[in-house]
Design a protein that fits this description.
It is a single-pass membrane protein. The protein has helices at 58-66, 71-88, 92-97, 100-117, 139-208, 210-225, 255-262, and strands at residues 27-35, 38-54, 122-133. It is α+β, with helices and mostly antiparallel strands. Helix 2 (71-88) packs across helix 4 and helix 5 crosses helix 6. The longest helix has 70 residues, at 139-208. It is built from 7 helices and 3 strands; from the N terminus they run E-E-H-H-H-H-E-H-H-H. A 3-stranded antiparallel β-sheet has the order 1-2-3.
């Protein structure tokens, strides 16, 4: 007979997986830990279900019938040994973080090997890990530790991001300074090369025609100064009768100033 359950009805006890509560079907297991630099252990609660059947061969059926008086008890004993050895070599974070399907497959292979060695004739069809968590009393403390670890890792990542940004800015600034220095060096080198070329040309010209070079420099100076100076050009070939008259007297002042001065 089937039973229907409303979607809003309370969940069955088998679906209760809250860490803060103890569950009757859970087993206590020891996992590896390190404390103060020394090897230690921690407790975890695990709800693991095993599904088995009698082997399909005649030999397996005979072994299960005549060599095993209580198959469930044998299976519980074998599971206790295998799981104790399995979890003792793993830390709490590894147990909680591992893929449960892969962990269940590993446990099934180890347990089946143990059953075969005992000649039980039993086939382990499935291992189902419903829950693995710290004990109910330590759940809050574990959550606090996990939260602190997450915050610490987030802070480390943030600082690494800022360090990378600072490094990128420093590299960009260094590249800009190097580029500016290279451009300045090229400009100064070009200027120095041009000056050296002009100096060599002047030296060679002065060695071959010194007077001509000096006259050329004089003309160059005049060409540079004439636009900035008031110049009067006189032709010495003009006769004295036709020569212009240049009045060098200062210009007369304001007549009103002269009248005021006389008074």
């Amino acid at each position: 007979r089937s039973h229907s359950r409303s979607a809003e009805a309370p969940p069955p006890p088998s679906a209760d997986r809250l860490w803060e509560r103890a569950h009757p079907n859970e087993a206590w297991l020891l996992v590896a830990a390190a404390r103060d630099g020394r090897q230690s252990f921690q407790m975890v609660n695990a709800d693991i279900r095993l599904f088995y059947r009698i082997g399909l061969s005649d030999a397996a059926a005979l072994d299960a019938t005549y060599r095993v008086a209580d198959p469930p008890a044998l299976l519980r004993q074998a599971a206790g040994r295998v799981m104790a050895a399995f979890f003792a070599g793993r830390t709490l974070n590894a147990v909680l973080g591992d893929n449960r399907e892969a962990m269940a497959g590993h446990l099934r292979a180890l347990l089946q090997r143990d059953l075969d060695a005992a000649g039980s004739g039993l086939d382990l069809t499935a291992v189902v890990i419903d829950a693995i968590h710290p004990p109910g009393g330590a759940a809050d403390a574990y959550h606090a530790v996990q939260a602190a670890q997450i915050n610490a890792e987030a802070s480390i990542d943030a600082e690494r991001g800022r360090a990378q940004a600072t490094l990128a800015d420093a590299r960009q600034s260094a590249t800009a300074l190097e580029t500016d220095a290279t451009a300045t060096a090229v400009e100064l080198t070009g200027t120095a090369t041009a000056d050296a070329t002009r100096f060599a040309a002047d030296r060679d010209a002065a060695a071959s025609a010194r007077d001509l070079v000096l006259f050329e420099r004089r003309l160059a100076r005049l060409v540079a100064l004439i636009p900035k100076t008031d110049v009067i050009i006189m032709d010495n070939r003009i006769s004295a009768a036709d020569a212009p008259l240049i009045d060098l007297r200062p210009p007369p002042g304001n007549p009103a100033d002269a009248i005021i001065g006389n008074n």
